[in-house]
């Protein structure tokens, strides 16, 4: 059997080459995704080297996690603020080991440059800062700036304004250091830093770490070695970025794997269908159905092994290009690289033959039932185009997709906003539609080609009848088009609908006219900015702080909610809150306003922990409707912790000129590290986040669509090469080469239109399910049909199909080729 299979591979190079290409590219895509996913879990990438305290022996810092003990578990959520180190602990550690006190506070050099952070000069050496010019700050009015601060090109002796938490003061630049990539620092004299920020945020240890650990006990964390990175600015930034990259690649890998299996199975089925007469000849000479199945199985294993080897060889290069693209588009950390890790390649290599076997299983069972008499037929007329098993699987897949959408809409409608929630339903719908294609294709073909019957020409009639006579082949060719256009329409449509609904929902809540918010990575809005906004004629300033609120949820699991710190009288002035129960007028120093996700009623008391770990027992004053995302929890400043003002909402007084107020706001806050935007623009979210979400969907689609495009060309090339006999018959009956090409082009267009029509049906069902789910959560449901991307993808599919079908047709035939095409 092996020798026969090898001979078949040699003689059926063209049809099996299509299968080889599809499988090799599928393995390469899977392996590249696996390598990229492995890189996101690389310990070296997830645990970067320390930066701010790289030259310290140890660092004493407050714990960054909150310990919440319940009856069923102990949780450790990450805090987003710090109380600093207690004075007695600082004294105890300082007596046991040499230390340098670290302070970390906002300090913005007036100008349009990046927002800065303030530190005492004594800690600069631990990060490797070195003076390029000038001297260290000695007096309270001296500062040292890095070369990338707002005063780019600052020289020693320059006078600059610095905004801190205590106000705006002019300082003299006593020195300039080389910039650091992880922060934009301004260094003050130690006494001045202590005046500006009395809280001690950490201790840099220059002696024995063990001595520091004994003196600290369990009151704080003692960081040594690689763990000193936890004392860097935003130490989880790289990990969050890697987690986001991992989620993106995980979704992309799932879709890529689905597309690869789907396309390979379709290609195998088409290849077996093209060999129907050849298999019948084997039955004539005595081959049993089992031997036919074994032959196809051995062939698939051989093709799978060779294709896997080729795919694994291509994978490292593809993974490197993918990593470079992700970094350039901001979807991965700047230093993200993809090393060659053995296990993804091994898994991909094993997956190739398995996918090959899965793809040939159904086709080989059908091939084993080929009757010997079919070898005597002069024409290739298809018999039954739909087996009961395929019909059952198609109905099951499509029904499962519908059930998933219905379950989401009824039981958990808010999960529709999660891409991971609706993607499986889309893939089930596409799978079901593709399996049921032989039933749908004849009906769609008759509908789409009906105008051709009224044209009165032979070309249109030939296109219509050729397509109808080969429904199985048409379905196999239309399958990649269905996957390509279906994924583009459903994923882009649902994603854009969720984004549009979120934006509409946020805009409906807005009552403010403008928002003054931090820019360039600032931690908040200082008192200087708040006072200047309050001084603008015609403007009413409403400061809003930010914090996190932790509570024990269902099952004893700690849950985190976003919190806003407001004055009791300001709640509801700048945004519309849909109160479900209670009244927001009851918000006081011992109360909070929650959303329905808390599952509480007005009057209930809840134990909460704030962003700095402060514990409080508060009364629920009101419950508001949340919307798509978990809603915001509102507290008063009495329980807001040390979190700074996150932003300032501005309402224009009645009768004041809106444009004039905006101009005064911009003039009053220019150079202070903030920006003035319209409240509606702020409600639409961070542009970078929306862009990242869109790019995430595009990279997911791009990989799958590129593969599908190759599959379309591959499949149609196989069909076009197999149609040489039909072209020879047309030429013998008097058809010109141009007429033959028109028939081929017409068939290609019809096949693409059939696939697009089925894909539009899947898109419509997906969007309908999305609309049903979102309508149960919010009143601002907005559906977006991505007509532009759909038209672009459809045009690309049509172009690829035309080139693949016309390439063998437009080649100049050799003498005698017309009669040679009739030979068996």
Overview of this structure, please?
By secondary structure, the chain is of the alpha+beta class. It has five domains: 171 residues, no CATH class; 84 residues, no CATH class; 95 residues; 260 residues, no CATH class; 150 residues, no CATH class. It has 24 helices and 23 strands. Strands 14, 15, 16, 17, 18, 19, 20, 21, 22 and 23 form a ten-stranded mixed β-sheet that branches. The protein has a six-stranded mixed barrel with strand order 5-6-11-8-10-9. A four-stranded antiparallel β-sheet has the order 4-12-1-13, covered by helices on one side. A hairpin with a 2-residue loop joins strand 9 and strand 10. Helix 7 packs parallel to helix 20. The longest helix has 40 residues. The chain is elongated and about 100 Å long. The two termini are 24 Å apart. The relative contact order is 0.12. The C terminus is likely disordered. It is found in: Cell membrane. One of its GO terms (molecular function) is transmembrane transporter activity. It is a multi-pass membrane protein. Keywords: Cell membrane, Membrane, Transmembrane, Transmembrane helix. It comes from Actinomadura harenae.
